[in-house]
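Re-running the complex after MR caught last week's input typo. The corrected sequence lines follow. Everything else is unchanged.
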Amino acid sequence: MGVHMRRPIIAGNWKMYKDTGQTRAFFETFLPLIKGPKNCEVVICPPFVNLQIAADLTASTSVHIGGQNLFWAKEGAYTGEISGEMLKAAGCGWVLIAHSERRQYFGETDETANRKIVAALDAGLTPIVCVGEVLKERESGQTNLVLDKQFTGGIAPLNSEQFAKIVIAYEPVWAIGTGKTATPQIAADAHATIRTLVRKHYGNDAAENCRILYGGSVKPDNVRELMSQHDIDGALVGGASLEPVSFAAIVNYETSKLQ
Ligand code: PGA
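Corrected-run output:
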């Protein structure tokens, strides 16, 4: 096939928001709004305590549920941690790994990210692995260096078979929760850099097939322009995924009117 088809992914990261009642209320409003055929895959990542209920509420739909983190051991004396197997048993098919907030506040490193990716794959989960530079790094011209370091340390130890099963999310940290979206050009440049890294480590086919999501202040009114960039294969949405109407508008980006 001459043309590579990368199926878009729209993923919502709820972070530490929504209790069980709010989770129910979200899906009650959200699910009817996204009826109809979709080209994209939809993933929602609620807090751990609401995974099971979210999975139950979406069981007969095409919406996938993911965790926001995991620990790499299968089970054991690791107070406060959750394994990939547990996520799977709760109805998850996906998991976020190394979100910048995990890197910033909870000691996530490229090395722990790698162990978590392997554990997620072993549990049959699809990892969405986050990379991205902070403002200081961008301003000092180190973006590509940071992406290279995060890729080399966190992702490149995977073999080709493992790599084929992961999704990468580029999230410039300065654009997260700030309302400052990267311009489509800035995002596209970083995505191209990441795809070049994939090509270098895993070859051309892997680079063409790898899905790279953009994250950082994605909203209903900017999702189309971002998604029209050649190297952007989806979105990882924080704030705008909490509100069913706005997340549905993002999921429906191909068909809905611009807001
Ligand atoms: P935001 O968060 O959409 O609220 O900027 C994105 C993320 O952290 O994944």
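None of the earlier attempt is carried over here. The two ends are 36 Å apart (CA to CA). Residues 184-202 form the longest helix (19 residues).
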